[in-house]
Amino acid sequence: MVDNEAVSETVKGPKTGKVDGKEKPMIASEEDFPLPDWVADWAREAPKLVVRAPGPKSKAIIKIDREYVSYAYDRCFTFTFEKASGASVMDADGNVLLDFTSGIGVENAGWTHPRVVKAIQDQAGKLIHSMANDAYFDKEAYFAKLLHEISPGKALKGTFFGNSGGEAVEAAFKLSRYYTKRSEHVAFFGSYHGRVGAGLSLTSKLKLRYSYGPLIPGIVFTPYAYCYRCPFKQTYPECGLWCMDYLEKQVLEMGGPTGPISSIVVEPIQGEGGYVVPPKEFLPGLKRICESQNALLIMDEVQTGFARTGKMFACEHFDVIPDILVMGKALGGGVPLGAIIAKNEIMKKWRPGSHSSTFGGNAITMAAGLAHVQAIVEENLCDRAAKLGNHTTKLLREMMERREIIGDVRGKGLMIGVELVKNQYTKEPHEATTVQGKCWRGGLMTITSGIYGNVFRIAPPLCMSKAQIEKSLEIFEKSLKDEEEFLKIGTSSAPG
Ligand SMILES: Cc1ncc(COP(=O)(O)O)c(C=O)c1O
Predict the structure, then answer these.
(1) Cβ 378 vs Cβ 271: under 8 Å
(2) Cα of 219 to ligand 1 centre, how many Å?
(3) 206 alpha carbon – ligand 1 mean position (Å)
(4) How many CB atoms lie within 10 A of CB 217?
(5) Strand partners of residue 157
(6) Which of 43, 260, 296, 398 could form a cystine bridge with 85, CB 3.0-4.6 A?
């Protein structure tokens, strides 16, 4: 848990903010987890469906989009954003949906949080571009100080700001090579680290790599501790972590890299891979392997960071401090921002000019990101995510008793994966797209992940109320029930 008092006065912001011209408190009561007062009235009525989506306004937008916007985007539903507040989103035709996505782990404090909005507005009137490569800017300095103060064990320092999670991975990769003077790395099956250069090369999914080879050489992939679908067909804890053994004794000693590795790059909980939570020994084991190899442990917390899992960073659940920590998504609260922070002796090795970016440390992103992370700290969202996460996980586990289509429920805080199967015993994956469509039509925005596309990500904004979570789960269960009826499952059981 972050020690709020440890966050110095310099980087603390106001505890109140203006909504509709009135001063409103930012901190909600912890008893029943209501929505914070700043959430707009229309957003409190979610879900509210006024027209079958896509309505006429949405259709008109989609028509132009389909003609002029790149086909590379993989839109999962015909939703057109009009506005968002708290944990609700509205489309162009006035349909209001509850949100289980946080904009893919971005809007942790809540959509259009007034502190973020105000910070952007104030900053935009003064300075937009701050030339971070060549000049100093107050909010960049304050933000880097805050990130040091909330870093695991306060052990990391010297933030480098870029423009996205993928760019932050690139920076970590370069720093690792620069520091170790080595050029080989270990990454994991099921990993996702972005779509550019190093990030794509460290990403395992064939569909995402397809047609882009050759990628950066020197990366070996090894199984993640995905115990529900163990590639070694083992069972935890009896296995004694074969995956760790395999990495140490097979990959690193017999035909993996051509020499000592520079780093192991890992997500503490896999995001795109299916919200996979490794057993408690996995990350400490990786740390030990890195130490034995004089290699660095790079933890990619782009999706898990900033209170999402009930701690500021997910690595804190496992008592492991990485050598380099990668941040993105919620770091900016909605503006494009990524960063790395590292152990000081590592970061200090980078000489001036070793790495740079025109827009990294940009004035607007610094103002917005600083305001968002301040809100996360001061509104105690780690605690809220932990408590609401426990409640949500309990409800989902009860749902799993009723719904055979659910094979597994796992997670930490409000990062919960629900894995769909055709049968709980055979574990044959059931692709989630049709259930996802039913959820959206029922008023719940959801996204999926997983190597088989069968895992729902339950990742609402951390300000979502307990009542809204329960309502969302009702929509979710109804969609699952419909799907079971369609597939005629729910009466099946163990084979034989
Ligand atoms: C763990 C992880 N790393 C890196 C990235 C890439 O971030 P971006 O899309 O901002 O480049 C993502 C994006 O989903 C991610 O989940």
Answers:
(1) no
(2) 18
(3) 17
(4) 9
(5) 342
(6) 43
* Tens-digit pLDDT profile for residues 311-341: 999 999 999 999 999 999 999 999 999 999 9
Ligand 1: atom nearest CA of 328 is 10
Angle at 266 between CA 321 and CA 375, to 5 degrees: 60
Q: Are 415 and 304 in contact (CB under 8 A)?
A: yes
CA distance from start to end of the chain: 48
pTM of the model: 0.93
For ligand 1, atom 7, the nearest C-alpha belongs to 165
Atom 16 in ligand 1: residue holding the nearest Cα? 303
Rounded distance between C-alpha atoms, residue 451 and residue 273, angstroms: 6
Q: How far is the CA of 193 from the centre of ligand 1 (A)?
A: 5
Q: For ligand 1, atom 3, which residue shows the shortest CA distance?
A: 193
Q: Looking at the chain, which residues constitute the CATH 3.40.640.10 domain(s)? A: 118-378
Nearest residue CA, atom 4 of ligand 1?
Answer: 193
DSSP structural state of residue 411: E
What would the pLDDT profile of 437-460 be if each residue is shown by its tens digit? 999 999 999 999 999 999 999 999
Among 261, 333, 257, 250, smallest CA distance to 296 is for: 261
Q: What is the fold, at CATH topology level, of the domain defined by 32-109+381-487?
A: Aspartate Aminotransferase, domain 1 (3.90.1150)
The fold for domain 118-378 equals Aspartate Aminotransferase; domain 2 (3.40.640)
Q: Which residues line ligand 1 (CB under 6 A)?
A: 164-166, 169, 192-194, 199, 267, 271-272, 300, 302-303, 328, 338
> Which DSSP symbol is given to 248?
I
DSSP category for residue 407:
E
Catalogue the long-range contacts made by 232-241 (C-beta closer than 8 Å, 24 or more residues apart): 236/279, 237/279, 241/279, 241/281, 241/282, 241/285
User: Which class for 11: exposed (0-12), middle (13-18), buried (19 or more C-beta within 10 A)?
Assistant: buried
